Each structure stands twice: as structure tokens, then as C-alpha cells.
Amino acid sequence: MTLLVGVIVHVATCLAVAAKTQYSIYILLSVAFLLVFGARMAIFRQFDRVDKQSLSHAGIERWERILVASGACTTALLGIASGYAIFVVRDSFAELACISVTMATMVSVVGRNYGSRFAVDLQTFFCCLPMIVCSLLVLDFYRGVLSIFLIPFWLTTRAMANGVREFLYENVIARREITIIADRFDTALNNMPHGLVMVDAENRIQVVNRKACELLKIGAPERLKDRDLGAVLRYGARYSFMDASQPELILRQLTQVAEGSLSRTLIHFPESLSLEFSASRRADGGAVLIFEDVSSRVKAEQKILHMVRFDALTGLPNRQYFGQLVQEYFAKYPKKNGPLGFMVLDIDEFKHVNDMRGHVTGDHLLCAIAARIKQASGNAILGRLMGDQFILFFPRAKEQVSLDREIRRVHAAIQGNYEVDEVTFLVSLSAGYAILESDAFAMDEWSVKADLALFESKSRFKGGISGFEREMDGRYIEQQKLKADLRDAVSAQALHLVFQPMFRADGSRIECAEALARWVHPERGSIPPDVFIRLAEDMGIISDITRFVLFKACSECMTWPEHIAVSVNLSARDLRDADILSVVAEALAHSGLAAARLHLEVTESCLIDEPAAVRAILAELRSRGITIAIDDFGTGFSSLSYLDTLPLDIVKIDRSFVRNIVEDARRLKLLRGTVNLARELGLKIVIEGVETEEQLALLNKHRSADLVQGYVFSRPVPSQNITLLQEGIGRRTVQRRRNKVA
After folding, report:
1. Cα 197 to Cα 389: distance, rounded to the nearest angstrom
2. How far, in Å, are 192, 512, 571, 582, 623 from residue 599 at the CA level?
3. Which residue of 7, 203, 264, 472 could cross-link 452, Cys pair, CB 3.0 to 4.6 Å?
4. Residues 610-640 pLDDT 10s
5. Which pTM value belongs to this model?
């Protein structure tokens, strides 16, 4: 457009001069201007069609030379028109018109051709040289001086073009660098994993990256510039996933973080989104808000916290978190009055489920029981203590009677049948509970009281429930004292032994005597064996008692007739590791007793823990010549399977098989069937608990026993009485023979 305006002015000026002076050369110059203009337009169109990216350096120089040459043609025509007006026409209008247009064109050279030094120099030369030469040829002093001044004008024009070129070049380079930096910044900003929002002092958004828009779902970044952040967030709350309260929360916490009162803050949004915000105040009063998606971290922390707080199997709170929940209840209702309940549940004989059906089924049963307790417990706080024990906290009730009724209702609701892994289990849970009015909660104290009540209910019958009574404290203290006294007695070897002999079925001879530990307390007198043996098992000192009995029994057996053996009971704890092998060997070596005179009795309960290991230990003992007997046969869960798999020599049939065999023919058949099965397996039969002559006669009639142990022959006696009993049998035998001879 500037060239079009220029050519119009040039043509119009030449035509005006031609009309004024009648010089036809100016008409020719007008035509020349039009031809040059047409040629330049054609060149420009051709250049526009060229692929600029494919141009080489030489190609660029060629196009520059064409541009400079076409421009120089225009300025040469202007110079010729001005010089001709000065030297030939010598008309003031012609000179003024031509020189004015030429000088104006020279000024435009700075604006259009500053990019090329060669173009500026060439066009200025063709403009000024004809005017200088013609002014000098006129031989007018003043015109000559004036023409000389065109040289400084030429230099000034050249300097101005250079200055513009350098200034604009520097700005172009700077703009390129700024654009590159801005692109890099924009790339980094929109690819960073954090959301970023920069606001001014009025909370208007200046910069926001794409991640921030994605996380907050607030639209495209280019639409948010200069928008109020609060308005944008409120808009997002209306049309996206945010709650209505969260925009104000973000702005409030942004202020707190920026002021330094809060280092960072975590805000949870719907759809499991968690964003962590931090902010910093800028010097101009604005702020920079940075936030990131920490949903994965929050989920991981919640999972870890859940693992720490909850039982992995049942999903119930563990003991520690249960106590925390109870404490939170008291903090939430500090002034609420009324009785509180605390109950401990214990699954009866749960260990047998693991042993019979495996731990997977046992775990499934535990989960089913936990689910039923949770369903029945209502608003009570439920937790898993350990193993097969659960704990419940009942919040304050209006009265103690209703709370007691509620606790017993929960206990009754969880008893009964459970269908697990296509098996029906009849489950009973023993329970102990405490109801207290005290406002001061002490977890350990309440646990002890509930445990005491649980111990009381388990000692009575399985599946029972007992409430805590103050007398239980006294019994608990007495039991603890009894445990301490038992520990001292075992350490001082203050126990003593009695022996219950095993006779041949006809009473003609004592074959063996079972060693039985007895404890006479210095204050309480004789303590029943089932009491102190159970205490010893709970205390973990039963193996010490076994060691004492083994050494003492072997030594006493050495004082008896050689055909009499001694039998010693082993506990489940004795068979948990191979130490019993060395203890038995030491006892035999210390006493000098032959291994064949030692019998070791085990019960079926010994086989529950690690049956393979127990079987290996018994096999090793038997290989050393020691006789192995299974005691109380028939009272366990899998008696018949043990007969075939264990390394046994003797089966001791429990007294429960003998009871009422005289009156009940079915019980006698059951006894005879068990005896026949054992004999088919090559085992010797010892029948326990024979108390009457009628029972003995019936056993002898059917030849059901190899040995008989019971009050019908003898009660447990001191060691020296074994020899006396055998001697008495011998004398009676001799007397019967003499009577027969007589």
C-alpha cells in the first residue's frame, strides 16, 4: 500500500510538472514510474509464492538484490526528475515539486529499507547524486553550497536507518528469546505434576496451569486470566464435583498458609480426591497457590492406619484401637452418667477346629463369629483381643438391670450353629463381664475384672456367662498366691509321689505302678492334683514337675521287685520339643533303671499341637526300649485314628467306659468293642477306674483287661507299700496253693 501511494504521488507530480512546464520528459518519467511499480508488484507476488523455509543463504541474497535494484530504480527516476528540474527546466514549481517528493521518499527509505544497509546507501545515492551534480553544473554558488548539504543529509539518513535497524533487531532477538522462554515456561508449567495458581493482590488470576484446571475442574486456562479466584472456585462448586463449602475453605486456608499461620493444608474432595495446598505471599501483595494430588498417598496412609488399628482377619478394632475408641467415647460424652459394661468373650475349644478342619476353615469360622457378634452388639464398641477372644464395651445405660439384660442378650444371640465351608459347627462362647458406675475409665482394671468373670464362667461350664463380683478379686488374689507357693514348692522339690498299682486282671501280680504327684500346702493342706497341675500348665512349669516325677519315680522303682515297672505321665508341653529325650535319658542314667521298666503315658491332648513332631519323639523313646501308653483313651476327639498312627504299646481305657457296665449292657458292648479293636492292633489293655468286685468279675468273664487299675485292688500308696502289696499277694498265693494240697 505504501508503494501504491508513492507511485500515485510520483506520477501525479511528474504530470503536474509536465503540464506546468510543457516538458514531455516528465510524461515519460510517469510511464517509467508505472512500469517500475508494475515490475515490483510482480516480483512481490512471485516472492510470496516461494517456500521461504527452503531458501538457501544464496537464494536469500539473490532476492535481496532484486528488491534493492527495483527500489533503486524508483529512487533513480526521482533523482533524474529533480536534477532535470534544477539543470534544464529551472522552474521554481518544477524544482520544488520534484525535490519535495524526492526528499519525502528519502525519509520513507528509513522506514521501509532500514533492514538492508546496501538498499539505504544505494537508494540515497541515486536520489542525491543527480541533484548534487546538476546543482554544481548550474554554476550557482548558493545552489552549489545547498547541494553539498545533501551529503550530511545522506549520512544522517544512513545513520538513522542503521539505528532503527539495530534497535529493532535487538528487540526482535529479545522477543524471540522471551517467546522461547515463555514457551519453555508454559511447557514446564503445564507439564508439572502440581497445580499452580498465581493471583494478584485483588485475588485475580494471573497465571494458572493446566494441571490446576484438571484437578479443580474449573475450565480451560486461557479463559481464567484476570478472573476472581473465589468466583472461579464457586463456579466450579456449582458445576463440578466440589462441595459448596469447599471454595471458601480453600480461600480461607490459602490466606492462612500465605500468612504463615499454616504451613500446608490437606482438603478432601468427593470422588476420593485429596489435594494438599501450600501458598506463598508475593511482594506485590499477590500469592502463589501450589497444590498436588495426594490421593494415592492418603489411601496408602489410610491403609497403613487401618492395618495398625484393625485386625487383619476379622476387620474388628484391635486391642489398642479398641481402647482408643473407648477413650474417644468418654471425651465425646464427658458428663453423661449411668452404668457402663465391659465384656470378654472366649470361643470354647476353638483349637480343635483348627486341628480337625485346618486353619483356613478356622479363620472363616472366626470371621463368621465376629460378624454375628457385630450384628448382635448394637451400639456397643467391639474389638478382637487375640486369638479366639473378643471384647465389647457397652455405653452408658439408664440402669444397671437393663444393661445386664442387654449383655446377656448379646451373649445368647451369638451362641449356636455356624455354617462355614459346608460344615456346621456348634459354637459356644464363654463370657465374663463387669458393670461399673465409676466415671474413671481404666482399661487394664476393667480387663482384669472381666477376665476374672470369664475365668469363673469357664470353670463352671462351657458357654456360660458370669458377671464380676467383688469376691472374685479375693479368689484371684488367692490363686495368684497359690501360684507363687506352687512355684516355690516345685523349686524346692517339696512335692511328693504316690503310686497306684496296676494288677493283673486276676489280682495275682502287680505289673506296674503309676506315679502321681501330690502337694501338701503348709497352710491349706492337700491341694487336689487337678488344681495344681492346671496351675502349673498355666504358669509354664509343668515340665519342671515332669522332671521331678521322672527322677523320683525311677529312683523309687529301683527299690521294688524287678518285674514291677513304673509309669509316668507326660504333658503336652513336655512333648513340644525334643528336650524330653534328654530328660528321660538322664533320669534312667541317674537311677540305673532299665528302660524296659519305664512306661510313659500321654493323653490325646498332647497330640493336638504338632502331631508329626510328637509322633517322632514318641517313636524315638520307644526305640530306646521305653513302653508308650495312651492314657484316658476314649475321652478325646479322634481316639481310634491314634491307635493306628502312634507308636503305642498300651491303651489305658478311661474309667468312663467302666462306669455302669454291670447295669447297662450297651456300655459293656462298647467297652468290649474298643478292647477287641485295640487287641487286633496288638496293644495291651489297661482298664482304669475299676472300683467294685462286680465290675472286676464282669471284666474277667469277658477277658476284657490285661491289667486293672482301680480301688478294687488298691488306692494310690507310698512307694514302700508297692513292695508290701506284692509280698502280700505272694503270701496269699502260697496259702491258696497249700489249701489246695491239703
Report:
1. 54
2. 80, 8, 14, 16, 13
3. 472
4. 677 888 899 999 999 999 998 888 665 545 6
5. 0.51
